[in-house]
Amino acid sequence: MIKGPQGWVFLEGFFVGSTQPFVYNITSPEQPMGYGIFMMNLLKRMNRRVLILCIATFILATAVSWGVFNAMPHLEDEQANLFQAKVFASGYVTVAEPPFAPQAFSIPFIVNKDGQLFGKYTPGYPLLLAIGTLINQAWLINSLAAMLTVLGAYLLGRDLFDQGTGLLAAALGAISPMFVMLSGTLLAHPSAMAALIFFAWMFVRARRSDEPKRLAFAIGAGASIGLALIIRPWTAIGIGTPFALLALIDLIRSRLKLLRVFVLMAIVFALIAAIYPLFNWAATGSPTTNTYQLYWPYDSIGFGPQVGRGDEGHTWEKAKINFDLDWPQFNEVIFGWPVIGAFGLSWLPIILGLVWRPFDKRAWALLIPPAMLIAAHLLYWARSGGLYGPRYYSEGLPFLWIVAAHGLIKFGSTKWPRRLIKVALPLLIMWSIVFSIEARFLQGFSLYDLDRHDTNIIASADIHHAIVFVATGYWTDYANLSWLNQPNLNSGDIIFAQDSGSVVDNVIAQQYPDRNVYYYDRKQDPPLVAGR
Q1: How far, in Å, CA of 379 to CA of 502, rounded?
Q2: What is the pTM of this model?
Q3: Sheet holding 466-470: strands in order across?
């Protein structure tokens, strides 16, 4: 077991498994041990376990990506993310629409402005996704982001409390249902989560007067929050605001002695954040364009008749309805533990972290970022609940994992509570795996009726340099294959177009006289037939 400043870490061999005593508190200035010696001891004692946990997280995220979601886009958001990633990977910001029958190639959330196509979302996540797209492994980005999120939770928990707290927080988070499910998608949340938790950790380190690499951490914090902003702007603002206020308080209390630290952080942040208006300028001609509104004019933040759907737009009453629908799901997906009445048992360790003695204001401070994130999304007209849980809240999860781990360690510092946790926690984890995670896996198979069935049929036919017209009753029928298209259609081996009738199909086919023509209808047998 590991002995921390709050007592013994329970679950010997289950999460921690160390037999060495650990008595150093990184936050205590009274400790005489030098930081370098301390880090060497950490490397010797804990890094192997952290590394194993990170690798396990990467494997699990990859398994979900391939085993549940077939490593392909499902939601409209994912379709747009992958499209824009391919555009970036080709060296461009936008791509010209097809000069003939562009409606036959349309997919959701792709903006067409002045004959140029691009995804409606901010550029941060597609830029990251482009790296995976270059090697035809787009799934890799979120698997890496999941691993980094778990590492970031460990680092922040370790530096605020102790390494036992950090490791337990990382372990609890690695099997959080919403985190597990999102890690297998092509959505932006996992990357934003990793950027924000690393920002929080580096911000904490940059504030410390005894930190020898203070400016390096300031640079890292600025880069991380800048990256988060260009991935998910409103989320970064929600979580970043309390840190900005804390920086202002630090400046006042230190009589501007920390000015160099926070100015450097702000400069690096601004340099990264500048990618956002530069993308808007290149894509739309204006750095201030809201690209969301180019697809849906009502898609913005706030209240009023011009925001959200309906004549009255987004109202406080609608915001409350969204919250009332999302909050019960959030109660479950933090850790996947049972909900009894309206109370999710996942909140028990979090409450313990806040109120169980000894009282620690840092635990309460960790509650502020997720609370601000939830409050910020009251101003957004759309709700986020569904298969993954309320994913707009997801970037607040790592902060809650740390508070929960802190609570369990404090509560388990005496004999009988420790025995209770050793029995209850494995049972709760098993409950989460069977009734929350596995249940979501089953729902995730063929989400939106999208899977690799059609892709495999095309692959097994071994056709090349062809154009395939896809029978489409709903956008998902076409999306099942259209995600394989290249943004510049002619550069792809196979071009997939919607079957729009013989007149339109012939117009398109005439643009590619050297390509073989096929028709695909998944409702027929065989689904793929040749023809012109």
Answers
A1: 47
A2: 0.90
A3: 494-498, 466-470, 516-520, 528-530
